[in-house]
TrEMBL record:
The DNA-directed RNA polymerase RpoA/D/Rpb3-type domain, residue ranges: 20-269
Gene coding for it: rpoA
Keyword DNA-binding: no
Family: Belongs to the RNA polymerase alpha chain family.
Organism: Rotundella rotunda
A GO BP entry: DNA-templated transcription
Full protein name: DNA-directed RNA polymerase
Reactions it catalyzes: RNA(n) + a ribonucleoside 5'-triphosphate = RNA(n+1) + diphosphate
Length: 421
């Protein structure tokens, strides 16, 4: 990708809450353009963070179905209007903790987004955005919480505690006219100073915000030049629409940065693995041993499925004799006092099985040498002594060590007698 480019075709501000951008990205190979375009589109629609109003508290309102005196809209309509308010940050610093905004208005009049008292680092994209209308005797006092997050579902408190008993109690309290006549709900109107200073949400109304600043993303793949001259002959055309809090160019750079950081973590993991391998195999002898133990022949691959079906050819009595012999070597005093007679050598085990030597998973050189000398089964192989095997052409000391180790894994050993049975 020597001639790789990223250029902006056009960027148009359609409305205060909609900015359109079109970009050229490429060139790519035929097998790469669709992969890059799809990954970038999914990243833009899910990984770009934004800010919004999470929930708000209205003075004198206990739930969404309360009627506010002097307010023309219902509380649900106010929540939907707050959901449509688009906010943006004045700087690039991310919000580590929630911020709070306030609103205190007396009627008559129309409440717009410009009436909100926002923190210094937060701005409203469209100040003329409509919120509600107050009559002459109307008054509304509320505070709202501003958070930064990705486009994910933030469940409110009453959805987390979705017990049937709680729902039954709420349905009993909320009947006709939002308040049951048998049970009265007392709502205390606090002063403005105490209401704004209290940070703990008591009657929080969840807004269900949409944090992602990108509304829609489309991509188109087009050819770029003749195929004979350029193998990288496809470009990706990215079209995206934002809500005005983020310019399309910034959103595209953020999406590309997210993808780059994701693949950089995978490459960093591969680098850590290679450093661990180099640290473990600094010694050349250990490295060569590891390479010798790995079989790259077809017989190893062919017989992997047979490993679980093979029977253990080593009798239990030989295990007991071998353990007793080891105890005799380590503690000779025990053998003198014991009346049990322990043999000094492991007896030869006669195996009546035509299991092939492929089951030993030997390297190809040793396997080929034994096959040429007509040793095709384990039963024939263990009839030979180590001295007799060393007399075979092409069979050396290294081959004998590997063979004895593989036989030991099966619980077998070569014939220790000099004569063949």
């Amino acid at each position: 990708m020597e001639n790789f480019f990223l250029s902006c075709k056009e960027c148009i501000k359609e409305t205060p809450l909609s900015i359109y951008g079109c970009f050229y990205l490429g060139p790519f190979n035929n097998s790469q353009s669709l992969t890059v375009a799809n990954a970038l589109r999914r990243t833009l629609l899910s990984e770009i963070p934004g800010i919004g109003v999470l929930h708000l508290e209205i003075d004198g309102v206990a739930h969404e179905y309360t009627t506010v005196k002097g307010l023309r809209e219902s509380v649900l309509d106010v929540l939907l209007n707050f959901k449509q308010i688009v906010l943006k940050k004045a700087n690039k610093i991310s919000l580590n903790k929630p911020l709070y905004g306030y609103l205190s208005v007396r009627g008559p009049g129309i409440i717009r987004a410009s009436d909100l008292r926002l923190p210094p680092s937060i701005q409203c994209v469209d100040p003329n955005q409509y919120i509600a209308t107050l009559n002459e005797d109307g008054k509304i006092v509320l505070k709202f919480t501003i958070v930064e997050s990705k486009n994910k579902s933030l469940k409110p408190f009453f959805e987390k505690n979705s017990d049937l008993s709680l729902l039954k109690k709420r349905s009993e309290e909320i009947t006709v006219g939002a308040v049951n006549t048998n049970k009265k709900i007392e709502i205390k109107n606090t002063s403005l100073t105490s209401f704004f200073k209290d940070k703990s949400p008591k009657n929080a109304l969840f807004v269900d915000p949409l944090f992602n600043p990108i509304h829609k993303v489309n991509y188109t793949i087009q050819p770029y030049g003749p195929l004979k001259e350029n193998k990288e002959n496809q470009i990706v055309i990215i079209e995206l629409w934002t809500n005005g809090s983020l310019y399309p160019r910034e959103a595209l750079y953020l999406g590309l940065t997210k993808l780059k950081n994701l693949f950089f973590k995978l490459d960093e993991m591969k680098l850590i693995h290679s450093l661990m391998v180099e640290a473990n195999f600094k010694d050349k002898q250990n490295y060569t041993k590891m390479l010798r133990n790995v079989e790259h022949d077809y017989t190893h691959f062919k017989n992997t499925k047979k490993r679980s079906t093979k029977k253990d050819l080593y009798p239990e009595m030989v295990f007991k004799l071998q353990n007793l012999e080891n105890e005799n070597i380590e503690n000779p005093k025990i053998s003198q006092s014991s009346t049990m007679v322990i043999p000094t050598s492991i007896p030869f085990v006669q195996v009546k099985d035509n299991t092939g030597i492929e089951d030993l998973f030997l390297p190809y050189r040793i396997y080929n040498c034994l096959k040429k000398n007509h040793l095709s089964s384990i039963e024939d192989l263990i009839q030979y002594s180590p001295k007799q095997l060393l007399e075979l052409p092409g069979f050396g000391n290294y081959c004998l060590i590997i063979l004895e180790e593989n036989l030991k894994k099966k619980g077998l050993h070569l014939n220790l007698n000099e004569t063949m049975k």
